[in-house]
Amino acid sequence: MTDPLAAGTATAAPLYREVRRLLTASLQAREWEPGAALPSEARLAQRFRVSIGTLRRAVDELVAEQVLVRQQGRGTFVATHGPSRLMFQFFRIVGANGERDLPEPELLAFERGRAEAREAAALRIAPGERVLRIRNLLRLGGEPIVLDDIVLAQRLFPDLAEKAFRERDSTIYGFYQTRYGINVVHASERLRAAAADRASARILKVAPGAPLLEIHRLAMTYHDAPVELRRSRVNTAHHAYSSELGKSPAR
Predict the structure, then answer these.
(1) Which class for 170: exposed (0-12), middle (13-18), buried (19 or more C-beta within 10 A)?
(2) Cβ(39)–Cβ(58) below 8 Å
(3) Same domain assignment for residues 121 and 234
(4) Please, is 96 exposed, middle or buried when counting C-beta atoms within 10 Å of its C-beta (0-12, 13-18, 19+)?
(5) pTM here?
(6) Are residues 163 and 72 in the same domain?
(7) Contact 34, 183 (CB under 8 A)
(8) CA–CA separation, 152 vs 112, rounded Å?
(9) Crossing angle of helices 15-28/52-64, nearest 10°?
(10) 173 and which of 32, 81, 233, 244 could share a cystine (Cβ 3.0–4.6 Å)?
(11) pLDDT by residue, tens only, the chain of 251 residues
């Protein structure tokens, strides 16, 4: 594989950021599969014709974002989307005592449709383009706590059908990663207070008009490319949204 740095291409960006860009491009191209080990730092530094320090700084940023994972004495690996990553990076609902429970998902609906203008803008597709609409219920401690409405651009998941989604043996983001090579690396969220409509009240077992936490999330892969638009409604009577600002993510 020919890399711009190895070919001597001039760049105005800091060198480690160019190395990071090239590493990200290789990850996006699935040069290294989820769970696979990267070549040694010495080999990568030689490939990009940079110092070990420059290479390590680029890798450090990807590790901090949980795109890569370091294992002491073993090397650096492509992160996989498993229960641990879900709980400490993407699922922020905790019990009143702060305890984290792995959610139990239940698929309620799987439909095909056309993107509305707001959805199209968020997913960077044309209005009216084909989308998949998924409604998922998450139970915590056996109780219905989170109702998710998910919108996906069908062109990213061309053969996705209800049976495969229902029978997946991993988290949703793990399923995107292993089946479609789409690695969700970060997400943008907006939170607001909302009142339960009749449908969500029935599913979450609350009274119509009861207060809910509404979370709008746009999940993205490399280079901030959108993957998934999600609206979550959360019964916070005995649960809360938890975010530990400034703390390094658990690994």
Answers:
(1) middle
(2) no
(3) yes
(4) exposed
(5) 0.82
(6) no
(7) yes
(8) 10
(9) 60
(10) 81
(11) 446 555 445 555 689 899 999 998 898 888 988 888 999 999 999 999 999 999 999 999 999 888 898 988 889 998 888 766 665 678 889 998 888 888 999 999 999 999 999 999 999 999 999 999 999 999 999 999 999 999 999 999 999 999 999 999 889 999 999 899 899 989 999 999 999 999 999 999 999 999 999 999 999 999 899 999 999 999 999 999 998 765 554 43
How many angstroms separate the CA atoms of 221 and 76, rounded? Answer: 20
* Helix residue ranges per DSSP H, 68-189: 83-85, 117-123, 162-166, 172-180
* Neighbouring residues of 148: CB distance < 8 A, sequence distance ≥ 6: 134, 135, 136, 137, 138, 230, 231, 232
For the beta carbon of residue 183, count every other beta carbon within 10 angstroms: 23
How far apart CA 5 and CA 23 sit, in angstroms, is 11
193 and 124 in one domain?
A: yes
Q: What is the DSSP string of 45-67?
A: HHHHT--HHHHHHHHHHHHHTTS
Provide the domain limits for residue 69: 15-78
